[in-house]
Amino acid sequence: MDTDDLVAAARDALTDAYVPYSEYRVGAALLTADGTLYTGCNIENANYSNSLHAEEVALAEAVKNGHTEFAALAVSSGARDGVTPCGMCRQSLAEFCDESLPVHCDDDDGVATYTLGELIPNTIDRGTLGK
């Protein structure tokens, strides 16, 4: 699956977002190492700390289905503003992905691509915890 297809899947996923408070839709598309695609959208809650982010919804679905190796992630918002995963989502991704994971961020001007390591250097990992 190429970057354009991955971004298109993230755009499709954001249409299902439940965002009555912020009205800021986000979709994510996570490609597993074997080519399986999982998508997620943000799901808000009146208690913002209980809201789910698109990336974590996609990651949870993939892990629930036995996938723990990933090839790429795309993220899109309804604003097409180049949104990147937040710090919490970056750390969650780092549990399963190495720093070279490409993260494609949808923007009106195209797609900005980062590596997970660029977005979150020096993550907390098993080594940090002495495991």
What does the model show?
27% of the residues lie in helices and 24% in strands. It is an alpha+beta fold and 131 residues long. It has a single domain (3-119), classed as 3-Layer(aba) Sandwich (Cytidine Deaminase, domain 2). The protein has a five-stranded mixed beta sheet with strand order 2-1-3-4-5. Helix 3 (87-94) links the parallel strand 3 and strand 4 (102-107). The N and C termini lie far apart (35 Å). 36% of the residues are buried.
Helix content: 25-40%
The top-level CATH class is Alpha Beta
CATH domain topology: Cytidine Deaminase, domain 2
Helical region count? Answer: 4
**CATH architecture term:** 3-Layer(aba) Sandwich
Structural class: alpha+beta
- The strand count comes to 5
Order of helices and strands: HEEHEHEEH
Q: What is the number of domains?
A: 1
Integer average pLDDT: 95
Radius of gyration: 14 Å
Largest sheet: 5 strands, mixed
Name the assembly state.
single chain
Query: Between the first and last Cα atoms, what is the distance in angstroms?
Result: 35 Å
Strand content: 15-25%
Strand order of the largest sheet: 2-1-3-4-5
| Tertiary shape | globular
Question: What's a concise summary of this model?
Answer:
The protein has helices spanning 3-14, 54-64, 87-94, 116-119; strands at 26-32, 37-41, 70-77, 102-107, 110-115. With 131 residues, the chain is α+β, with helices and mostly antiparallel strands.
Layout: helices, strands, pairs:
Layout: H1 3-14, E1 26-32, E2 37-41, H2 54-64, E3 70-77, H3 87-94, E4 102-107, E5 110-115, H4 116-119
Parallel strand pairs: 3-4
Antiparallel strand pairs: 1-2, 1-3, 4-5
